[in-house]
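Molecular record:
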Amino acid sequence: MKNETGTYVKLGLFVIAGSIILMVGAYMLGNQQNMFSKTFEITTRFKNVNGLQEGNNVRFSGIQVGTVSKIVMENDTSVRVHMIIEETIRQHLRKNAVAMVGSDGLVGSMLINIVPGKGSAAAIAEGDTIQSYSRITTQDMLTTLNVTNENAALLTSDLLKITGNLKNGSGVLGHLMNDSLMAKDLREGLHNLNAASRQAVHTLNQMNRMIADMNFEESAASLILSDTVFRKQIEDIAASLDSSSRDIRQLSGELKTLTANINEGEGTLGMILKDSLMADQFRHTLKYLDSGMVKFDQNMEALQHNFLTRRYFRKMARKEARESNKQ
């Protein structure tokens, strides 16, 4: 009987201890999953969650503030992550916060780190979607390193080809490196260039000495720079040139006006140039004048052969001959 009583006591103690352990574990697990505190939900989008799972922790500035409740694949380039956050952190969390996937230590489980954004923003609300930042993964670094290695191999191959061509004397640079005559000419050219530069420096020094030795006080330069009378004459010449230029501009304007009037047929000259009837009359007048001159020459010729005036014309011819002989 005593043995049975002891057994029941032990069994009761075991049940009580197990119940206590179960209650403590349930409380700790529920507290870990935010089951006994007021929470709100926010979301974010990632291109790659890097092994993040439901139930992983969410930290804000390094403090545990919630857990990952759900991960949904929206399309081939976007993954939406739902997070349960403690209500007490709402006043510190802003809409411009940034979420990123990290790990708990070097080999720990994945988690989401939320960091405050730059500037000021309103407090976050239930169901808001915050920005995300995807860090460079080890696979991305390996891919980039692989591409870099391939490019380095190609560059090394090209450098080997270039050095081989240089050693064989191919191309201008290879020919220059292997041609001793061209190298000699290049050295002579550099020597001549050096000599020319030294000569130029020597010439400049001589010119500086000549300028320093010039007597500006007794030279024409002194007259130009310091003589007020000569300067006044220069100013008068400049004023005269300016006045002449204004007169020329005025005359040019008057000529343009006159030319415009002539083109429009104004004035006598414009009428002559534009009026076709007057032009015909002018041509007829010139024609009659030409005919009159011809008849006048004929009348003069007839007078020279007339017996009444023939002696006069002969006398004039002899007089002109004597004057010509004297000259």
Notes: Strands lie at 39-46, 57-60, 63-75, 78-86, 98-103, 110-115, 129-133. Residues 1-32 form one domain. The two ends are 190 Å apart (CA to CA). The first helix runs from residue 2 to 32.
